[in-house]
Amino acid sequence: MRTTAPNSPHRAMRGWLTILLPIAGGGVIAVIAALIMKYVR
Amino acid sequence: MAFQQILKILLQYRRMIVLLCASATLNAIAITYMIPEKYESRALLLLKPREQVRITPPVAGKDLLNFPVPVTTPFEAMAQTYSEFVKSRTMAERLVETLHLDREPVDPRWWKRAIAAGKRRAEDIWLLLKYGRVERSSAFEKAIEDLDDSLTVNPTKGTYVFEIKHVSKYPETAASVANAVADIFLELNSESNRTDAKGSRQFLEKRLRESEDSVATARLGVRRFKETADITLIDSELSAKINALSDLQSSLATTREEIDGTRAEITQTESQLKGQELYLKSSFKVTENPIVTDLNAEVARLEVDLAGRLKKVAPTHPDALLVQAKIDRARTRLSEEVKRIVSEETSAMNTVHQRLLQDLLVARSKLQGLQAREKATMETIESNRRELRRYPEKQAKLARLELDLAVREDTFKLIAKEYEDARIREDAANPEIRVLSRATPALHPIKPIKVYYAGLALALALTTGVACALFLAYWAEEHRQAQAQAAR
Questions:
Q1: A23–B19 C-beta distance less than 8 A
Q2: Which of A21, A29, A31, A38 is the best substitution to test chain B (most B C-beta atoms within 10 A)?
Q3: Where exactly are the structural domains of chain B?
Q4: Chain segment A1-41, per-residue pLDDT in tens
Q5: How far A10 CA lies from chain B's nearest CA (Å)?
Q6: Report field, pTM of the whole predicted structure over 0.90
Q7: In 3-state terms, what secondary structure has residue B1?
């Protein structure tokens, strides 16, 4: 399944992305949730 | 796809899902600290229906702008009216002035101040985008707008209670605004009622004075007319005049009858008088006519002579015939003479004539008297008729004046009653609305409730995470199959 070579810079970046993207996504989701709470309630 | 396969995929992407959920929850919690907290306070007002003391009977219907209004106003409509009244600009201005709501307190927390500044910037940008220029409304106007958004008045269903609710960033402000609204509302309502009552009382007072003057003028008019026309009780007077006229007419008829009778009497007397002599022979003496006596004696002597001669001669003898002729002549003469004659006569005045003459004179003088009476009666009747002809005009004018007076008196009575009502209304206190419970500062904010935000963010993150995991698995599988085909 792996398409990149181990210890390559590309792989390292991918590793970081798999961490940072969910964190950023969580932020976006939190903002959406806050907006929903503001306008729905 | 089997459940185990899904579970396997989720386990494979567990780190991403966990990170997404954790990030979303933590960020949501962090956001709740940035959102200003809102505190809510509510004051309850009791709307107590009250019965008004009235002197005049209540009016059957009310109207508004000439449209009929139902007698029983629904409570919702009343509460809605009060709600609009509470949210009116007059009320808002008074609240902002009283509570200095246009002065925003400075938050000691720097990040709150930073958020407020950012918010202001965002508002400026939004204004620029909307209108092409930035023109901020004054703090006073903004406070009024905020108040309009944050203040609500709702009737409590099925009761005569309605609540005034205010939401603010500060619990004390929320409570004080709700209480101030209740107080100002009561004050304004009371003031409005009192002003209305006072206004109507003053108006009625003025109208009462005018009406009083008007009644006095009308009364004076009636009195003056009665004095001028010499009327006290027009109906009685009219009836008396008509009776008098009727009496006079019957008296005239009687007089005329009497005149006719007297005239007939005069005619009769005059005709009787014609047959009477002025003088009447009272006594006379009758004696034998001496010529008749002589003739009788002559006839007797001739008859004796004839009888003697007849003894001697035949009746046809010329002597006998001569004597016979003398006898016949004497008899003829005798028949021509009256036997008796009036020798002495006495005359006297005719009493019947005198009596008739006296009667005639009496009748004539009576006729003159009756004629004079007829003339006087006719004059009186004519004068009465003239007066009576003027009565309808007088009566109509008097009726008009009296009607006017009656209308003015009725108006005066009505206004006097309404005036008393207005005084009662003005004096009455205003127990219609009162504060049932005052607002107190809330301990906890109504929002943001952190667990709700965190829960919603977690649920959203979990859904998104699962969806992403499934998509990534599908995408990886597709990619792998494409590579395998390429290798073959």
A1: yes
A2: A29
A3: 29-102+138-278+350-462, 287-347
A4: 445 566 677 777 877 888 898 899 999 999 999 999 988 86
A5: 17
A6: no
A7: coil
Contact B290, B297 (CB under 8 A): no
Residues lower than pLDDT 70 in chain B:
1, 49-76, 428-432
The angle formed by the CA atoms of residues B379, B382 and B385, to the nearest 5 degrees, is: 150
Q: Which residues of B touch A21 (CB under 8 A)?
A: 16
By CB neighbour count within 10 A (0-12 exposed, 13-18 middle, 19+ buried), where does B351 fall?
Answer: exposed
Is the minimum CB–CB distance between B30 and chain A shorter than 8 Å? Answer: yes
Which chain B residues touch A19 with a CB distance below 8 Å?
A: 15, 19
Which residue is associated with the tokens 């009685």?
B236
Question: What pLDDT score was predicted for residue A1?
Answer: 47
The reply to whether B475 touches chain A by the CB within 8 Å rule is no
Structure tokens belonging to residue B217: 């003028």
Please state, in angstroms and rounded to a whole number, the distance separating the CA atoms of residues B22 and B458.
8
Q: What is the helix (H) or strand (E) element at residue B206, kind and residue range? A: helix B171-229
Q: Dihedral, CA atoms, B232, B235, B239, B242, nearest 10 degrees?
A: 90
Q: DSSP states of B303-359 as a string?
A: HHHHHHHHHHS-TTSHHHHHHHHHHHHHHHHHHHS-SEEEEEEEEEE-HHHHHHHHH
pLDDT reported for residue B275: 82
Q: Measured at the alpha carbon of residue B15, what is the angle toward residues B11 and B18, in degrees to the nearest 5?
A: 100
Q: Confirm or reject contact between B86 and chain A (CB < 8 A).
A: no
